[in-house]
Amino acid sequence: MNINDLLSHDLKSERGNLSDGLPAYYRFVPVLFYLTVVTSIASAAYFSMQIRNFADERASEQARLNDLTMVTNSLAADKFEIEQENVRAEAVGKWIETAQGLQPLVAGLARSIKQSASIDMMSLKRNPELPPQIFLTLKLNGDVQEQIDLSMQAVRELNYRSFSAKQSQGEGILDYNATLLWNGVK
Amino acid sequence: MKDKQAAVVLLILVILGLAYGADQMRKRANDMRSEAEAAKVAADNAETQRLVAEASLRNIKEETDQLREFYRSWLPHLEAVQNVQAGEAKVIETIKLGGVFSTSQQFEDGTGMAESVIPKTLKAQLVFEDEYSKVMNWMGEMERLLPTARTSEYEVRRGDSGNDVHISLVLEVPIFNPKAMVIKPAIVVAGASAMPAPETE
């Protein structure tokens, strides 16, 4: 028996397409889609890796910057302390320069007095404006001329320089004034 | 629109979306690279600043070393007198130790150096009537115990009796303020070597 004889009817009659199919080049759209998916995934992976690397690099540089800033600040603080100490030292130096003891000068002058002379009055006053300068006043009795030479020799031996010296001399009396300036440690 | 056309449009939209996303990632990567480079430049600048600061510190240390050493050698003596009461006590103590007869002791505030570690002084006006050698010994001892004190006036005359002498002197004791903030950028170290160091006890 022929199979066609068994078919009682045809459910779908032959008919033409309602519209034309898409142009052939549209077949590249799915290809492009797959290519784009693959490329996007690859580039996303690549750029993520780059972002992570640059982020690490940035963090590392920022940490270095912070460390260096701390070190620089610490150095600046040390420098400030040294500057402070230096200015303090300058002030102390200025003071100490003018605080040179007078006892050696007084003792030296007293020791220079010979038996033939005597001190009636001796005065040492620092110049209030220029404390390193000392105004010396000596009132001597006796063999005054020789004595004043000896006394000023004693002053020079102690490394004091005298200037603006004035003296008024009477019979066995001498008033001597001078300004002394210490020349520093020998 | 037919189904196939709609599918194509959808696919094209998805493709554009993926391309846009990839471009955004590229931009982010570029931004991050710029930030990393900027951070590197900043760190390199900081490194230069550190080197400059180090050199500057080394220089200032070398330049001021002598003067600061001098200062530190005097510091114990200065720190011993940080107020007027301590200064008075020191002067009175030296007079007692010397056993000299003092007829007058007057203390008053003196002027120091403005904006410095010695903002004021204690001015002691002392009068002695005793043997010359005794007073001389006391004076030497006082200058040893109070090496920072400045004798600004000294006068000796004959005393009323025997070997006695009448000595009047004015002592200025510096009142030290170690916490004084003194800012001065210029550094002057000249003259430090000519200054005497304190005698060690």
List the main descriptive attributes of the protein structure presented here.
heterodimer; A: 186 residues; alpha+beta; 4-stranded antiparallel β-sheet; 4 helices; 52% helix; B: 201 residues
Describe the structure in your own words:
The complex is a heterodimer of chains A (186) and B (201). Chain A is α+β, with helices and mostly antiparallel strands. In chain A, 52% of the residues lie in helices and 22% in strands. Chain A contains four helices and four strands, in the order H-H-H-E-E-H-E-E. Chain A has helices at 3-6, 28-97, 103-111, 144-157; strands spanning 117-126, 133-142, 160-170, 173-182. Chain A has a four-stranded antiparallel β-sheet with strand order 1-2-4-3, covered by helices on one side. Chain A is rod-shaped, with a radius of gyration of 55 Å. Chain B has 201 residues and is an alpha+beta fold. Chain B is 53% helix and 21% strand. Chain B contains three helices and four strands; from the N terminus they run H-H-E-E-H-E-E. In chain B, a hairpin with an 8-residue loop joins strand 1 and strand 2 (120-131). In chain B, helix 2 (84-98) runs antiparallel to helix 3 (132-145). The longest helix of chain B is centred in the N-terminal third of the chain and has 77 residues, at 3-79. The termini of chain B are far apart. Mean pLDDT of chain B is 86; it is low at 185-195. The interface between A and B is large, with 71 and 78 residues. Strand 1 of chain A pairs antiparallel with strand 3 (150-158) of chain B, so a sheet runs across the interface.
